[in-house]
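During the second half of the funding period, the structural biology subgroup turned its attention to how the target accommodates small molecules. The most pressing case was zinc ion, which had performed well in the primary screen but for which no bound structure existed. We therefore specified the complex as follows and requested a full 3D prediction, including the ligand pose.
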Amino acid sequence: MKENIIQLSIPTPFAVGDVHAYVLKGEAVTLVDCGPMTEEAEHAFVTQLKEHRLSIDDIDQVVLTHHHADHVGLLNLMKLHVRVIGHQLNEPYISQDPVFKQRQVDFMIPFFQQLGVPLRQNECEKMVKQSYTYSCTSHVDEIIKEGDRLSGHEHFFVMETPGHAQSHLSFLDERTGNFIGGDLLLTTISSNPLMEAPYEGEERQKSLLQYKASLNRLLRLPIKTIYPGHGQLITSHHELIEERFKKQEKRANTMYQLLKQKEMTAFHLCRKLFPVMYEEALFLTMSETVGQLDVLLEAGQIEEMPKDGIVYYRAN
Ligand SMILES: [Zn+2]
């Protein structure tokens, strides 16, 4: 059976604008992602379902592309029988596990110090707390991973596509070339490779390196149309990925040139790269900076020099 993908556009309080949720009607009625927890989002969600002759009661399961608040908040509206399906790393975020929240803060304070960020008191707690403002309190009922098939829509193949989030999954229908891509590739903005606290016994993942690998993987897949988490549908993903790679290379090169002139901390570099944005969007801009530093370190172009608990970088 050929099934349609219904796109819902839900407002968010974030700069990125609307988020898209998708309804798949196959053996099950499945919602992919669901919007932030705000009254405006709830209203838009219910109204648009109605336009497609659906209601919240019709939804059997929700599949998550990743754990960010703009994609999971409205899980709070779902009825008890609705199954939540996604990567296992969604769980601590969507359940708002207090132990994990504390671990996020405990990771961030020394890490930001090491990066040379002058933090005011409680700033890390505030940043962590803020990231949950529009999120939900829910649980993952069914964990899926690379190579699985989506229950109720067996032609959708599950892919792990980390980088923007460690929990990030994408779904490819090989028969049609339809690809539900979450925030992996967007037309409107380049996805941020966000830093995340590592899970127990693990080291910090290098998000930008992962992100580039995920994009490279897309280039080799039989994709026709990408159904993204924000912005327009994508039908020429090769061009867009090349564009993203070029922009990243340019930024890495700018950083390398800066470090050739003088050794710097990650925070100094961040201020040079994002002089207007860095204060307001500290976490995003630092994530981008750390990502590029990981790339340059991996390529052997720069090296780290720890001095009194702060890491300086210099060009080789
Ligand atoms: Zn996201």
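Two results from this model are relevant to the next phase. The chain has a mean pLDDT of 95. The chain has two domains: 5-95+132-235, 258-315.
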